Amino acid sequence: MESKIFTRLLILGTMNTAAFMFSQSTENDTIVKSKAIDEVVITGNSNPKASIKTSTSISTLKMKDIENAAPRTTAEIFRTIPGIRSESSGGEGNSNITVRGVPVSAGGSRYLLIQEDGLPVMQFGDIAFGTQDQFTRFDSFVSRVEALRGGSASIFASNSPAGIINFITKTGEKEGGSITQQIGLNYKNYRTDFDYGTSIAENTYIAVGGFYRISDGPRKTGFNSNNGGQFRLSLLKKFDKGSFRIYAKLLDDRTAAYMPMPVGVTGTDGDPKWSSLPNYNILTGALQTINLQHDRTLGNDGNIFNSDVSDGMHSLSKVIGAEFNYDLGEGWKLEEKIRYAANSGQFIAPFPASVSKGSDFFTAANFTNFGSAVYAGTNTPVDMNANYMKLALFNVKLNNFNNFVNDLNINKKWNKLKLNAGLYKSTQNINMSWMWNNYIQEVNDSNARLVDVKDTSGALITDHGLLNYGMKDWGNLKRDYNTKYDITAPHAQIEINATDQLTIDAGARYDIGKVTGTFSGATVTYTSLDMNGNGVIDIPEQMVGSNDNINVPVNYRYGIFGYSVGANYALNSKNAVFARVSQGGSASADRILFSGYNYTNNDDPALDAVKINKVNQIEAGYKLRGAGYFLNTTLFYAGTKEANYEATTQRKTENKYQSLGVELDGYYRITKSFEVKAGLTYTHAEIKNALDPSIIGNTPRRTPKLMYSVNPNFNMGKVNVGFYLIGTTKAYTQDSNKLVMPGYAIVNPYISYQIMKNLSVNVNANNIFNAIAVTEAEEGSIAGGNGIVRARTLPGSSYSASVKFDF
What percent of the chain has pLDDT over 90? Predict the structure, then answer.
């Protein structure tokens, strides 16, 4: 296996050598006399510079790139970035994102942070039911997106050793704006984006923008799934020696959360055939239904808590921030960024705890003293040949996810030396309440019916489909989290221009973390309570899951030392090679609570082993630039040591991982009208150590060998047409390496027409050929199963049209 990997890397090295020789032999060609293609980047650099002059891997997505890619969610924007695996099947949030084979062992994006204007949206990327993409929305107020991959991120941000994705917003310095109206052509979607910027006084600029959207979403839920919007404001003042900017954001948005669905699987683990089940299309179906829109549960405060299931992921974020920079003279410069975000909301979505055929589902083994089953609200017996589910209704109230971030930097420039020293300070609240219930529902993607079950005497043991107040099978899960994470991180970077060709940079960061607070609900408790108010204690009301009200204290500290050393050597104006060695880490947050550790003993070796997740990285590469092309090639290695807890499996893990591979990022303008962008990442990943010895040596779950994207684009005057081809090779559903998720390729075509100078129309599609793209699955094998696997797939084909007016 290793020899095959070496052979592939050797072939790629030969290709790049050929590219280098080509660039040398064409030095006198007319085309290379024009300016080479290169971007000035600011993310992950203490000093903005052209990307060929940095020893980092960074990509820039401009507004047009993103519009053409037809993203339906924020996470779908990242699918075209080389090296980044974005499992965007969960909707507008709850997505799993990682970089270069670094694992997604539970959910979210533990090793990558999303930033807005250089500061993180959330301080942790993998908070259960509160991931950072839930509080991030792309709109026309964004000027570009920069994506940094690799170890240099360790010294520029806390808890992001594998990468940073930075949304850079408009400031109003460029006069004008736009209004874009988008509609869904085969699904209900009505969205308006707007932005405008202008000068309001000498060296003073204002910008406003945002969006509002009403939509059913690409899957059928039976109600308006997506409803809400975002408004942003920026005010910038420039003066002789610097500038001051203040900005604000208000996000209030409700979107559907798509959980794993019942999927039919036949064949073998190594050669499975994935397909839709009767009455349920895995490309367009959703577990949500108009028959389950209201949920009543016992709140952790002892009061009844009512929820609207159609709220889905309700994200509320109120943000105010400021940026200040000042030239102190004699090469000294001061930079300050500060922001406060008040974040809250709710996450409510159905999850299939178990699925099977009615004749297997409705038995005494599943329901004590089982007598019969009817569709809720009727006396109609259920069809025993149809499929049914026990649903865990994830109902999580995001009480307080507020965060404060401040990053102060002082820069000094000498002749060939640049020094940056800074102090980063942040706090992140994680205050949420889990209040889950258990329902029974048929498998149907069109107004699925709830099911009531009766005992042998004919008495109902359910209440309109509700089986348990709480998740009895999973130990109740009535939890309260109320913790605060305080981070102080001094950091410094130095850059040395050793020669005209050689640049060396080094940096270090030390995160000092303090965690305080409490959590409750660690023990299983029940109470008897008349939940529906009918004056009778019905069977589901005899054991109502409740919080134990025992507050477990949390008070511990941690430290993360990160460093990164890199060098970039410019062979000439078009060619450069670079190398980098880095170490970093990400602190564990809520996912290690409820795991039985002593959270007030800093000297406890068991806690010490899990509170920090470490990543060591090595990367080396070659960058080629020309007037009509560029190619970035990066060889990478990452070693990861982590601990985790997964809510849906109730499983605790402590594993070591290793990944190595190559990443290609390229562009070529073939003619004046025809250009191609492409990215490819090959990864060989392996589990090096684990609590479960049977998985050592296996490939980490959901990690494909190959990911790729290709974007041919034809620009013929007023008409622009092209497509994105995005795909992966096969991967395993679980670390056991049995059940295979087949590789897929999805095609997203687009066409736009410039009606007049400031008016254009665009039509785009997503997954036009309805490819079945499985991104995750709960089961690790189909052997001994019932032919049904719970999995998430990318949505099927969706078409939209938009009209954009620039002014």
Answer: 80
Q: What is the pLDDT of residues 125-169, one digit of tens each?
A: 999 999 999 999 999 999 999 999 988 999 999 999 999 999 999
Backbone angles phi, psi at 54, to 5 degrees: -110, 155
Q: pLDDT tens digits, residue range 163-177? A: 999 999 999 999 999
For 277, counting Cβ atoms within 10 Å of its Cβ (0-12 exposed, 13-18 middle, 19+ buried), the class is buried
CB-CB contact of 586 with 110 (8 Å): yes
pLDDT band at 3 (very low <50, low <70, confident <90, very high): very low
If phi > 0 it is left, if psi is from -120 to 50 it is alpha, else beta; for residue 283 that is alpha
**For 525-604, where are the E strands, in sequence order?**
525-527, 544-546, 552-570, 575-587
- Kindly report the average pLDDT of the chain as a whole number: 91
Q: For residue range 550-573, list pLDDT tens digits in order.
A: 999 999 999 999 999 999 999 988
Q: Are strands 112-116 and 163-169 parallel, antiparallel or unpaired?
A: parallel
The amino acid at residue 268 is T
Gap between the Cα atoms of 630 and 52, Å rounded? 10
- Taking the C-alpha atoms of residue 664 and residue 631, their distance in angstroms, rounded to an integer, is 7
Determine which helix (DSSP H) or strand (DSSP E) holds 16, and give its type and residue range: helix 2-25
CA angle 323, 326, 332 (to 5 degrees): 130
Beta pairing partners, 745: 727
274-284 pLDDT, tens digit per residue, is: 999 999 999 99
Can you name the residues that pair with 424 across neighbouring β-strands?
407, 489
Phi, psi (degrees; rounded to nearest 5) at 10 = -65, -40
- Determine how β-strand 451-455 pairs with β-strand 370-375: antiparallel
pLDDT at 19 over 80: no
Instruction: Calculate the CA dihedral of residues 586, 588, 591, 597 and round it to 10 degrees.
Output: 150
pTM equals 0.91
Give me the helices (H) in 179-241, please.
Answer: none
The distance from CA 654 to its chain's CA centroid, rounded to whole angstroms, is 22
Given this model, what pLDDT does residue 105 score?
A: 74
Give, as one character, the DSSP assignment of residue 606.
H
How far CA 631 is from CA of 151, 574, 624, in Å, comes to 20, 10, 5
Q: Residue 2: phi, psi to the nearest 5? A: -65, -35
The alpha-helical segments, DSSP class H, found in 60-178 are 63-68, 153-156
Residue found by looking up tokens 């529902």 in the block? 441
Degrees (nearest 5) of the Cα angle 217, 221, 227? 45
Whole-angstrom distance, CA of residue 584 vs CA of residue 281: 43
The mean pLDDT of 281-290, rounded to a whole number, is 96
Q: Is 617 in contact with 150 (CB distance < 8 Å)?
A: yes
Amino acid at 174: K
Whether residue 26 is predicted with pLDDT greater than 90 in this model: the reply is: no
User: What is the chain's alpha carbon radius of gyration, rounded to the nearest angstrom?
Assistant: 27
Handedness of CA 577, 581, 587, 591 (dihedral sign): positive
What is the full DSSP assignment across 586-606?
EE--GGGTTSS--TT-TT-HH
In this predicted structure, the answer to whether residue 35 has a pLDDT above a threshold of 80 is no
